[in-house]
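Hi again,

Forgot to attach this to my earlier email, sorry! This is the prediction with adenosine-5'-diphosphate bound. I've pasted everything inline since the attachment limit keeps bouncing my files.
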Amino acid sequence: MAVTLDTDLSRVLGAKTARAMADSLDLRTVRDLLRHYPRRYARRGEMTRLDDLQVGDRVTVLAQVRRVTTRKMRNRPGSLTEVTVGDGAGEMQLVFFNRKHGQLREGAWGLFAGTVGEYRRTKQFAHPDFHLISGDDDEDWARALIPIYPASKDVSSWVIQKSVKLLLDAAGGFGFVDDPLPEDLRARHGLLSLPAALLDVHRPTSQADVERAGDRLKWDEAITLQLVLAARRRAASLEPGTARPRRPGGLLDAVDAALPFSLTEGQREVGEELAAELDSDRPMHRLLQGEVGSGKTVVALRAMAQVVDAGGQAALLAPTEVLAAQHARSIAGMLGPLARAGELDGDPAGTKVVLLTGSLKAAARRTARAAVADGSAGIVVGTHALLQEGVDFADLGLVVVDEQHRFGVEQRDALRAKGNRPPHVLVMTATPIPRTVAMTVYGDLETSVLRQLPGGRGGVASSVVPVSDKPAWLGRAWERLREEVAAGRQAYVVCPRIGDDDTGSTETDAPEDADGAPDEDDAGGNGDRRPPLAVLDVAEGLHEGPLAGLRIDVLHGRLTPEDKESRMRAFAAGETQVLVATTVVEVGVDVPNATVMVVMDADRFGVSQLHQLRGRVARGRHRGLCLLVTEARETTATGQRLAAVAGTSDGFELARLDLETRREGDVLGAVQSGRRSTVKLLSLLEDEELIAAARAEATALLATDRGLADHPGLAAEVAALATDERATYLEKA
Ligand code: ADP
Ligand code: MG
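C-alpha cells for the complex follow:
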C-alpha cells in the first residue's frame, strides 16, 4: 500500500481507532502519528516509582500483578475485585466492580492506565485499562524499552504503539518518509536520517537509540521555528524604511548637554549601534536587554532625539499609565524648554512631548491626537491607547517599546503599521532573557545588551523573612524600615492584592505577566490558602501598628490616573515616606531616594517579578534593602526559590531559574500559534547550542531570494507550523 506522510490514518488503521485518535488526540494523518513521540520508555526492573504518582494524574504504568482478591460488596449486590500490582518500589491497587478479570493472574506483567485516585491512604486506579504483556503480540512486548505515549481515555498508549507497528508493516518500513533536512546539513551536525530517527524513537532497542533519535528530531523542531523567524527577519530587512541621520545642533545635542551624568561605556556603545542603524533605510529591529537600573531610558531618549532631529516622530510605548506618565515627565524635564515648542517659554527649535493614555478626557485626547497628526509632537509617550484607531502620526520614524515582556508581537506590529513606511523599532526589556529565549521568542530581533550598571550605585541586599520559621523577624523588618526612614530614605511595601473587596482578585492595572504565576508546591495545595495580603489592609495595619507616625500612602490600579499620578508625585517629592502598593511599582518606577522594599507574600510573585520589584530600590547611591516576607517554609521548593532570588542579583541567572519553573510551551506560545504545539522535544534550558546552530542554518538557508524553493520538505514542515498570519512573512521571503 502506498503510504505518505499525508495519508489519512483511517486508511492505515481501523476506522474506529482512527476516529478515536482524531477526536481525542488530534492525530489525523500519518505525519501526526509519527510525530506523536513517546513521553518516556518503561522497562522491566526499572519502572515508574509508583510512590511518586500524584492523585489526579492520568498515567500508564508497567507493573506486575502481586495479589488478586474478590469479595462480595456489603451494601450493594455484586462483587469487588482488588488487584495489587507492584513494581518493586511501591504498590498500588486496581479496583474492578462486577467484572471478570481472569487474565490478571499473580506474576503477570502488564501496562495499567488510569487516573490515580486514593482510598484509605492507598493509591488506586478504579476500572483501569490494562494490557497484559504475555499476550498474542509477544514479539512487541519482549522489547527492552516499551514506549509510553501521551494517551487519552479512548486511545491508550498500547493502542498507539500497535498502530505504529501496523503502519510500519503496511508501508514496509519508514522508507516512504522523505527527509526534510538537506543531506549536507545532516552531515555537518551528525544527524540520523528522519526514517531512522522515527524508527528509533518509536521502537528503540536501547537508550542510546532514543537519545540519537531525540537529537535528530529536536533539529526538526528547532529548524522549523528558526526558519519562521529567519523569514520574518529577512522580510523585515527588505522593507524600505526611512533613514534618520544624526543632525548636530538639535535635540540630541541638547539632551547630551543636559544629562547630569556621563554615559556608561555600554550606553555609549549601544548608542553608536542605534545611531548607525537609524541612519539606514533598512528599518532597525533591535532588542535592548539591560538589567534593572542599567539606564535604558536615556539610550532610548537619545535615539528618539536623533529621529526628531531628522524630521520624524518617535513613539514610546509603556505598559502602565504610571510608567508612561513618568517617562513623559522625565523626558520633558530633561529637554526643558526644548520640550515646549509652541508654548510661551518654549524653544522654537524644540518639539512637543505628548502623553497619550486611555484615561485622557475627550478634549485633552483630541488636542493630543491633533499634535500627533500634524507632527508638532515629536515625542509621543503612551500606553495601549497609542495603538488605537484614530491615532495617526504625521511621520512615525521610531517606535520604542519599553518593558517588552508585557506586549505581544501583534501589538508591536500594530504600532509599526502606523508609519507611512516601516519605522525603526527598539524593544527594551528589563527582564534579562536567556539566550535561547532571545533566539526564539524574540528571534526576529537583533540583540544588544547593557551589562553594566551606572557607577556609584549602592546595590541591593536581599533577604527572605520566613514568618512561619522565624516569626520574630517580621518585627525586625519593620524596625529596619523605620531606621531607613529616620535616615531620610523612603520605602515601598508591596502586596499582591488591592483589598476592600472580598473577591480575592489580584491587581489588574497592568496586564498579567506570563511569568508572574507563583507555583503551587506548598503542602495543602491552593484551595485552602488564605487570600493574598491586600494593600488597603496592610496599610491600615502598619499605620496603626509598627509604622505608626510615618507618612504612609497607598498606590494601586483602581485609583484614577490623576490620583495615581499625584500620589506618585508626592512619593517622588519625599512627602510620602512609605508607599504601600501593588505591582504598579514593578516596572520602571524611578525614585532614587527609596531604599527599602518589603514584599509581603513574596511567594505569590514570580522570580522575574521579584527581581523587577527590587530594582526599584537600587536606583540611588544608597545601598538598597529588599525583604521578601513569606509564610512558605524555608525547606519547601517555594522557600528555596525565594532564597535563590535573595541570593543573587544576576538577572540572567534568575531568568534561567524562572525558565525552569515554566513549561517550554508557555514560553514559546508567543511564537507558535499553530493548531498544536510543535515543540515537543526541544528544551530552552538544555538545547542552547542546538538552537544556536539551527538559527545559523536557517539564516543561511534563507539568504537568497530562492527561499526554500530547493527544499520542498522543509517548506512543508514550515507551512505546517506557520498556519497563521505569520506564514505571510515566509511567502514574502
Ligand atoms: P532601566 O534600565 O531600569 O529602565 P533607567 O533608565 O530608569 O533604568 O535608569 C535608572 C536610573 O539611572 C535613572 O535614575 C537614570 O537617570 C540613572 N542613570 C542612567 N544612566 C546613568 C549613568 N550613565 N550614570 C548615572 N546614572 C544614570
Ligand atoms: Mg526602564
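The two ends are 37 Å apart (CA to CA). The longest strand covers residues 58-72.

That should be everything now.

G.
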